[in-house]
Design goal:
With 474 residues, this protein is of the alpha+beta class. The protein has three domains: 212 residues, no CATH class; 102 residues; 110 residues, no CATH class. It is built from 14 helices and 16 strands. Helix 3 runs antiparallel to helix 12 and helix 5 runs antiparallel to helix 9. The radius of gyration is 27 Å and the shape is globular. The chain starts with a helix and ends in a 7-residue tail after the last strand. The N terminus is likely disordered.
Length: 474
């Protein structure tokens, strides 16, 4: 008997929930935390061909507007939300029991190399519709070629400027090292301690004017976030965030974490105590705990990206890129935009010929980070990257000598969550639904008058929460 896709999905959700229902309570408290499994049903796509009307005249379709299709396509979706609300798309996940006794303790594992660490039966969920490369590794090489090419081609001292540009790219590329220096710095620690001192005074001042618990908390937060040392750290965090080669929100989040932790603890203590040293001590302890936790904040880059950054495939190519760019710029004569363009092309050619691009494209990830909030009325979006040398690139053929290199494919996915919020559809199963949109580049030539439109498709999505476990691979 053939099941409707949603019927099959409900059975999958029920089965997985039986396995995952006894999982331990998660550490985080985001309302959407946990594992979500579902599907997208695509019913619209933009037209790539020019039609002919009844008068035998060509009719140019609007490439930006997907139109209804005669049939539909179903894509399985697997999303995970951690305790802080960070969303990741998964290509597979295994629910494994970490305990040999009752009650069961479920771990969600996306890295199959970790399977031997677990025992007993489990359940694996996978999707064939998605695979992920490390787009940031490829972006890093592009940034390097751009920076070195521009510096070499637009300056008379091309070698010195190109080397300096490469050094800046390398400094901005190591996001984790830069963040760890900030997260363990006295600047961040002192921001928390100073915020605790100000929050204690603010909380007791509000209590002295007969403020209720809400007023005391508001006063503590205002005092902490207006503290001079706190704001000095916040300004530094903003500068460091801007220097990072890729978006890194950890700096600002770390400053607010120590300040707000101090404020909340001071306000709580002030509700039952009028001693300023005691209230400040409560805020100080909370700030120090937040300071210690800040260094473990999830990285915006993958372990595979960091491995590539430290690899010989990247490190040995940096001086080669600089040499190629400088030689091309000098061959053009005086500094000019033409020299910069030539230098950039030479840098990219060097990266290709010495296989840096191939190594970056071959990286395969188990998870893809998305931005946004998976909640009622929220929008979650992200870019999925599949490099030309990725093992699952659809243009590649392992045994065909003409198809060893594919085309770079990117998929911009968007989930527009409906405003109805969670729908309880079974025992322990919450559901979110909404509109799914995707734009794909690399599978077809660019569309539109400006050649900047990819293949667009859209439809609906349904996600069932089958676990409240908010951490992966632990």
């Amino acid at each position: 008997m053939n099941l409707h896709p949603l019927s099959a999905l409900r059975r999958l959700g029920a089965g997985v929930c039986l396995l995952l229902g006894a999982a331990a309570a998660p550490a985080g408290d985001h309302p959407s935390r946990g594992l979500w499994v579902g599907e997208a049903i695509l019913t619209r796509v933009n037209e790539v061909s020019v039609g002919i009307n009844a008068a035998n005249q060509p009719v140019q379709p609007n490439r930006n507007v997907p139109t209804a299709t005669a049939d539909k396509a179903n894509l399985r979706l697997i999303l995970h939300v951690d305790g802080d609300g960070h969303v990741r798309m998964l290509k597979s996940v295994a629910a494994l029991n970490t305990s040999t006794n009752d009650p069961t303790a479920i771990a969600l594992v996306t890295d199959d190399t970790l399977y031997p660490n677990f025992h007993g039966n489990g359940k694996r969920i996978a999707t064939a519709a998605f695979d992920f490369g490390e787009g940031r590794a490829a972006d890093l090489l592009t940034y390097l070629a751009d920076a070195v090419g521009h510096a070499a081609g637009t300056n008379s001292d091309s070698a010195a400027r190109a080397n300096a540009a490469a050094t800046l790219v390398l400094a901005g590329a190591n996001l984790d090292a830069a963040y760890q220096r900030f997260a363990t710095s006295n600047l961040l620690r002192n921001a928390g301690l100073s915020a605790a001192s100000s929050a204690g005074a603010g909380a007791l001042s509000a209590k002295g004017t007969n403020g209720n618990a809400g007023a005391i908390l508001a006063a503590a937060i205002a005092a902490a976030t207006n503290d001079f040392v706190f704001n000095t750290a916040l300004s530094t965090a903003a500068v460091l965030r801007a220097r990072a080669l890729f978006e890194d929100t950890r700096y600002v989040a770390a400053v607010f974490s120590v300040g707000l932790a101090a404020a909340h603890a001071a306000a709580t203590a002030a509700n039952t105590n009028s001693s300023l040293p005691i209230v400040r001590a409560a805020g100080t302890n909370a700030a120090l705990a937040a300071f210690a936790a800040a260094r473990t904040a999830p990285s915006p880059v993958s372990a595979a990206y960091n491995a590539f950054l430290a690899s010989s495939a990247f490190q040995t190519n940096v001086p080669l890129v600089v040499s190629a760019a400088v030689a091309a710029a000098l061959a053009q004569g005086a500094p000019s935009q033409a020299a910069a363009n030539s230098a950039r092309s030479a840098a990219l050619k060097s990266l290709f010929e010495h296989r840096a691009l191939a190594v970056a494209d071959a990286i395969s990830l188990n998870e893809a980070p998305l931005s946004g909030d998976l909640a009622a009325g929220g929008v979650v979006a992200g870019r999925l990257y599949l490099g030309a040398s990725h093992p699952t690139n659809p243009f590649r053929h392992r045994r065909h000598p003409d198809h060893t290199l594919g085309m770079t494919i990117t998929r911009q996915v968007t989930f527009e969550v409906g405003t109805n919020g969670f729908e309880r559809v079974g025992f322990g199963v919450d559901r979110l639904s909404g509109i799914y949109k995707e734009e794909i580049t690399g599978l077809h030539k660019p569309l539109g008058p400006d050649q900047n439109i990819g293949l667009k498709t859209e439809g609906t999505f349904t996600l069932n929460r089958v676990s409240l476990v908010d951490r992966l691979n632990q």
